[in-house]
Design goal:
Shape: globular
Oligomer: single chain
CATH class of the largest domain: Alpha Beta
Number of strands: 5
Strand order of the largest sheet: 1-2-3
CATH superfamily of the largest domain: HUPs
CATH architecture of the largest domain: 3-Layer(aba) Sandwich
Largest sheet: 3 strands, parallel
Structural class: mainly alpha
Radius of gyration: 22 Å
Strand content: 5-15%
Helix content: 40-55%
Length: 363
């Protein structure tokens, strides 16, 4: 462990990671891993909230995400990569934190409402599904993280995490409720009040058409509108050439719109040549350049961006044992940090009875 401020972030194993994950959080993780003491985890327990009948898929998806982490440039020598289910302190703390979250407050979380609607759960969701915002609180607070790189859609979870951190510090550590967030540790609190680090693109849109109301949907595997970090060049070409643009582009009175157009959102996000973008946008509006030319340019940019990631991915795909070893070693380090937090939390709550020492062994 170091004296650096801590940073934590993770992903639910729903499949391979895509460009939305990259600009939303992964890019920041790679950039910040030398500046902070970093913990990156696969939330496989959370994966069971909607795939409890497909445990093998959750397992395989978890390993795919670890492979994507390594391919993106996360360095296991300086960052800790671990699996959620093998750090029992997180589950114990989640149970304690659940006592600090009233059910009505939980149900006001807009992300919960969106998940229920988007996944068509209606009233058919489990207690475990409702608990996942609380487990996310434990994911962060167990490591006493100060910074959390996430996408914009996770901000409601972050606010709930801050509320619980304040409440615990006030209730069990005697911190005054009027204390500024930045001063909770100096005032005797156990948990820092974590702050969000948003990616340069708050929410990347997908490649598909908008809704009937004209709303562009965010990139998502479940919506079949994603470009994955592991997609080979021919798949990238196919997906970009089929990308939704402006259906009214050929009208003489309105040759082309760049606003709310996924093609140009992608260029603004991934194309480093800002001069080309502005010149091409002007031509596009005047009908002097077509979708195909602009898409071909975008294809070149994305293939170049993903090439080094995919080359690293191939190396790790050939050595699954190396991936599992990295994951085991990281999980051991994560347990050291988590057990220390649990010990201090139980002491603050007057529930410290014994000391324990956890170790991982081969199956």
């Amino acid at each position: 462990m170091t004296n650096k401020a801590r940073l934590i972030s993770g992903d639910t194993p729903t499949g391979k990671l895509h460009l939305g994950h990259w600009v939303g959080s992964l890019e920041n993780r790679v950039l910040l891993q030398k500046e902070y003491e970093c913990f990156f985890f696969v939330a496989n327990v959370q994966g069971f909230t909607t795939r409890m009948e497909e445990p093998q898929i959750v397992y395989q998806n978890a390993l795919e995400i670890v492979t994507d982490y390594l391919a993106c440039g996360i360095d296991p020598e300086i960052a800790t990569i671990f699996i959620q289910s093998e750090v029992p302190a997180m589950a114990e703390l989640a149970h304690f934190f659940s006592m600090l979250v009233p059910l009505p407050r939980l149900m006001r979380n807009p992300t919960i409402k969106d998940e229920i609607r988007n996944k068509g759960l209606s009233d058919n969701y489990s207690i475990g599904f409702l608990m996942y915002p609380v487990t996310q609180i434990a994911d962060i607070l167990t490591f006493r993280a100060e910074v959390v790189p996430v996408g914009e859609d996770q901000e409601p979870h972050m606010e709930l995490t801050r509320e619980v951190a304040r409440r615990f510090n006030q209730l069990y550590c005697g911190v005054n409720s009027h204390t500024e967030d930045a001063d909770y540790i100096k005032a005797g609190g156990l948990f820092p009040i974590p702050q969000t680090k948003l990616g340069r693109t708050k929410r990347l849109v997908g490649t598909g058409a908008p809704t009937a109301e004209g709303q562009l949907l965010k990139m998502s595997k479940s919506l079949n509108n994603a470009i994955f970090l592991s997609d080979p060049p021919d798949v990238i070409r196919q997906k970009i050439m089929a990308m939704f643009t402006d259906p009214n582009r050929l009208r003489a009175t309105d040759p082309g719109k760049v606003e709310n157009n996924p093609l140009w959102i992608f260029h603004d996000t991934f194309n480093p040549d800002k001069v080309w973008i502005e010149e091409a946008k002007d031509k596009y509006r005047k009908g002097q350049i077509g979708d195909v030319d602009c898409k071909k340019r975008l294809i070149e940019i994305l293939i170049e961006l993903l090439k080094p990631m995919q080359e690293r991915r191939k190396l790790f795909e050939k050595d699954k044992h190396a991936v599992l070893t990295i994951l085991r070693d990281g999980t051991e380090r994560a347990n050291q940090a988590a057990e220390e937090t649990l010990r201090l939390a139980k002491k603050a709550m007057s529930q410290a009875y014994f000391k324990r020492d956890l170790r991982l062994t081969e199956l």
